[in-house]
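thought: fold this chain, then report.
action: predict
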Amino acid sequence: MSQIEELHRRIVSAMERIGTGVDALQNAAPTGAVQDDSLRAALDDERVANAQLEERLKTLKERHEQEVDAMRADMESLRSAPADHPENGALREQLAEATAKLEAVEAARAELADAKAALENQDEVETLRAENEQLRAAATKSQELEAENARLKSELADSERVAELSSELKMLRAERSSHGAAMSRLDDDLQRMRKANEQLRKSVDELRAASQNGLPDAELLNRATVAELEATRAAQATDAAEAHAVLARLEPLLSRAKLADGEVE
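observation:
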């Protein structure tokens, strides 16, 4: 009986240690206050303690089964004894004592079952802890992927903006080149018109002077006519150059407007 009580005391102590460990793990899991290394060390210690406790429980269970079998055999012997046996009173006392021991053994067996259930709960806590670590790792990986995705989107937007600016720069350069050619042509035509006007003014002055002295000769009239014709042509060329310069300035603007309309559509 003293051995059973000692085993019972050990089982109760082990169950209290297990319960304390389970409560500590359950309180530590949501807050995350304990570092991973210390948690792993605590889990390893709990695994060793659980293994030792399971081995003790197994040995204790075997001993209890042997004692229960022996007690049941004694009870059967007592029950089969004759009622008028001279030692009947003593046998009844032994039967009552054996019955009490059997009840104590059954209670110890129930406590063993509770201890085993506590061990199973401990294993479940460890499994949940491992799953929690996996979920944390997956969440961290997901955050890293989201950050990488945002960075790639930003780089893509910058690349598209650079392409737009490059295209606009090419259009501006083409516009400047076309506008420069048109302005150069306009300048040449203006110079031509100035020369033609000077020649025409000179011819007119000569004709005016000749008319004051008498009739002008045919050569002066021809030169005046040629100068007038050249001035007219120069004026027309200047008008054409001005129109070309205006068109050269408008063409890039029209191209941008068409491109914008195409993007909207």
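thought: worth noting. The chain has two domains: 2-143, 162-264.
final: tokens above.
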